[in-house]
Each structure stands twice: as C-alpha cells, then as structure tokens.
TrEMBL record:
Keywords: ATP-binding, Nucleotide-binding, Transport. NCBIfam families: 3a0107s01c2. It comes from Lacicoccus alkaliphilus DSM 16010. This is Phosphate transport system ATP-binding protein. Residues 39-280 form the ABC transporter domain. Signal peptide: none annotated.
Length: 285
C-alpha cells in the first residue's frame, strides 16, 4: 500500500484516504510493555433466530487500552459489544456458542452472575440516556443499588466519578438539578460518570459521540484518553478519524465476522486485507 509519510506534529496522512492517525494519543502496548488481556473471545458465535449475526469471533482486548470496533452498518458491532456484558441476551431469540472470557472467566458460566459482570463491565450508549433524576442521583444510582447508603460515602463516589468523567467543575454547583437540563455533551459525560461509579474495569462505548457536536466530541475523546490509564475501553465507532485518533487497536467487522484486528496504526496505514483498506479509506461503508 502506498503511503505518503508527511509526519508533521505527530500526524501521518495516508495517500489512499483522508484518515489521519495522530500519534499524540497513541502509546500502545508495543511502546511500554505487554498488557494483560481483559476480554478474550474463543470461536464466539451469535444468532438472532436464523440470522447468524456473529461468526467465529476470536479477539483479545487488553487492559488499559482503547480498542476500536469499526465496520459498515449491520456488520455486528453493537451486537458484539452488547454480548460482552450479556446485554444482548435481553433479546429473546438470541442464541450463542463459544466462549467470552472476562479476566479468564467464561461470562456464560453459572459462577458469574449478570449483575457482577455488568458491575465490572459498564456501558455508555450512542444517545446520552440519563435517568430523569438529579445529576447526583444519576451517578449515585449504581452505588445505591449495591447497598451504599451513607451520604458521606455517596458524596465521595459522586464527586470522584464526576471528576474522572471531566465534568465536575461544570456541574458541582448544580448537583441537585435534573440531568435533562444539561447539554447533550454534558449528559454524555454524566452517563460516563454513572458508569464509572460502580468501579468497573471495562467501559463499553457504542458510538459515544455520534450524537454530539465537535466540541463535545473532542471533550469525550480527551476523556477516553484519560480513562484508559485506569480502565479498558472498547469503543464502537463509525468515525474513522476517531478510531485513528484515540484507539490502540482496531477490529474491522464485516458481515458478522472479523476481517482484521491489529494495532490501529497498521489497520489504517498498512492493512493486510483489501476490504479493510477499502473501508478505512472510505471506498465503501
Ligand atoms: N434486536 C435484534 N433482533 C433481531 N436482529 C437484530 C437485533 N439487533 C441486531 N440485529 C441484526 O443483527 C445484525 C447486526 O446488527 P448490529 O446492530 O449489531 O450491527 P451494527 O454493525 O452495530 O450496525 P450499525 O452500525 O448500523 O449500528 C443485523 O443483521 C441486524 O439486523
């Protein structure tokens, strides 16, 4: 593949497309030692009735990395991330085969309850979906469900989660106001704070910025970069620039299977498969 390596201010511009891979966010495992897997799937398959939506998925996601899931509409990206915290089982016709290991435990084993799994594997959705409650109560919701009642402890969790979600300064004087009164970008960061409040290891994000304006998108992307110091992030995105900007690894899904999974730099600059190259350079999608 032909690359024009115009390396300016940590930026590489590809010849075949418009995607820019920025190095400022990228410090993948290769740069600073090997990280442990947080999720590993072994021949994972999923059907919605007769529709074989995920086919023989074998992927590994490491701790403290941002992993992007990309691919055209309907290729199974959302289904895959919703399988990782078993949310997909809310659909009655779903059937699965194969394994998903979370820290080496099969998430389908009886030993692990769905509640335990979802405490450790939080999710943020495409559209900000705060509860119709105060900002405080949104963030305190998970800890309260887990039995935390002491106001002092809840106060601390709420403040820490909002700080970690980079929204504390904007909302600290209006914690008792309804979260619906916030902008879309602020609501999304409150939703991220709500996910952080149960102290997860992994945060799944399904197109977390597609409903946001460019300024809010930048804030959430900066936040993702901060969060990966303490969490692992698996992010579905349609936005090639976003995947290139923020992720360490990228998996390209196509028609229910994984065509290619590799370091983001390789996927965008030197993919092995022609379909990956065509997709990341915008020739189809
Ligand atoms: N609740 C559901 N019931 C039945 N089939 C479903 C359901 N959700 C998804 N599917 C099917 O599973 C396949 C994968 O859909 P999925 O939403 O995971 O794709 P996607 O890559 O996330 O798409 P998009 O980028 O458009 O959000 C599609 O064929 C879709 O029709």
């Amino acid at each position: 593949m032909v690359n024009i390596m115009t390396k300016e201010k940590n930026t590489v511009t590809r010849a075949a497309g418009t995607t820019v891979v920025e190095d400022r966010f990228r410090d993948s495992a290769a740069d600073d030692g090997i990280r442990e897997p947080v999720f590993k799937t072994n021949n994972f398959n999923l059907w919605y009735g007769d529709n074989h939506a995920l086919q023989d998925i074998n992927l590994t996601f490491n701790q403290n990395e941002i992993s992007a899931i990309i691919g055209p509409s309907g290729c199974g990206k959302s289904t895959f991330v919703k399988a990782l915290n078993r949310m997909v089982e809310l659909v009655p016709v779903v059937r699965t085969e194969g394994e998903i290991l979370y820290l080496e435990n099969n998430i389908f084993d009886r030993k692990m309850t769905v509640e335990e799994l979802r405490t450790k594997v939080g999710m943020v959705f495409q559209k900000p979906n705060p509860f119709p409650k105060s900002i405080y109560d949104n963030v305190a919701y998970g800890p309260r469900v887990h039995g935390i009642r002491k106001k002092k402890v809840l106060d601390e969790v709420v403040e820490k989660s909002l700080r970690d979600a980079a929204i504390w300064e904007e909302v600290k004087d209006r914690l008792n106001e309804n979260a619906y009164g916030l902008s879309g970008g602020q609501q999304q960061r409150v939703c991220i704070a709500r996910a952080l409040a149960t102290e997860p290891d992994v945060i799944l994000m399904d197109e977390p910025t597609s409903a946001l304006d460019p300024v809010s998108t930048t804030k959430v992307e900066d936040l993702m970069h901060e969060l990966k110091k303490d969490y692992s992030l698996i992010v579905v995105t349609h936005n090639m620039q976003q995947a290139a900007r923020v992720s360490d690894t990228t998996s390209f899904f196509y028609q229910g299977y994984v065509v290619e999974h590799d370091d983001t730099k390789i996927i965008f600059e030197n993919p092995r498969d022609q379909r990956t190259e065509d997709y990341v350079s915008g020739r189809f999608g």
